[in-house]
Amino acid sequence: NAGVMQNPRHLVRRRGQEARLRCSPMKGHSHVYWYRQLPEEGLKFMVYLQKENIIDESGMPKERFSAEFPKEGPSILRIQQVVRGDSAAYFCASSREVYNSPLHFGNGTRLTVT
Amino acid sequence: QKEVEQNSGPLSVPEGAIASLNCTYSDRGSQSFFWYRQYSGKSPELIMFIYSNGDKEDGRFTAQLNKASQYVSLLIRDSQPSDSATYLCAVNFIPLPGNQFYFGTGTSLTVIP
């Protein structure tokens, strides 16, 4: 499968637990982007990463949220001490390194905090 | 502040009609423009991209770009009920590090059989 792979598709966590969302970019893509989408709302940019480097994290809350894209393995979006307001769909997208290269999205992870 | 504006709709058109979706952007230096379609509960999928002024056609879809007026539009000819979705406009702004995108909030389209 050459597409952007996200897992898990659905994740249920209780308040206070940690959530880890994984994303493997398309083959040949070195840029990864994370977006959050609340029901009936638009995409909200969170963070943009290259291998071992955060390019822009201006959309990510300063507390409880972190992201990484290690040299080996998938990109990880980590949410510590989840709260009900974190319940949303989290989409990962990837692009090639070339400017103007379009984004391709994964199927998303639906996080539910109970 | 980089902004991408779309009319949230909903936009309703009868089956077989032309649907016209519009997007304006704030930065005159923007270079690349993308249209995504998102069905309810699904992820966005790329429909078209356009870099140069003018029209670009792909099947029933036509993207139109006017950099002087800072707008980009998407026309859907012979609209089908399966085209009912939210359409997202995305823009690359420059200068920025890397390959960064700004999305509009999307226009909801309903095609009525």
- Which stretches of chain A are poorly predicted, pLDDT < 50 over at least 5 residues? none
Amount of helix of chain A: under 10%
- Percent helix range of chain B: under 10%
The rough form of chain B would be described as globular
How many strands, which pairing sense, and closed or not: the largest β-sheet of chain A? 7 strands, mixed
Overall average residue pLDDT of chain A: 94
What is the alpha-carbon Rg of chain B in Å?
14 Å
Low-pLDDT windows of residues of chain B: none
Biggest interface, chains and residues, is: A-B, 26 and 26 residues
What letter string, H or E per element, gives the SSE order of chain B?
EEEEEEEEEEE
| Helix-strand makeup class of chain B | mainly beta
Radius of gyration of chain A: 13 Å
Describe this structure in words.
With 114 residues, chain A is mainly β. Chain A has strands spanning 5-7, 10-13, 19-24, 31-37, 43-50, 53-56, 65-68, 75-79, 88-95, 104-105, 109-113. In chain A, strand 7 (65-68) and strand 8 form a beta hairpin. With 113 residues, chain B is mainly β. Chain B contains no helices and eleven strands. Chain B has strands at 4-6, 11-14, 19-25, 32-38, 45-50, 54-58, 61-66, 71-76, 85-92, 101-103, 107-112. In chain B, strands 2, 4, 5, 9, 10 and 11 form a six-stranded mixed beta sheet that branches.
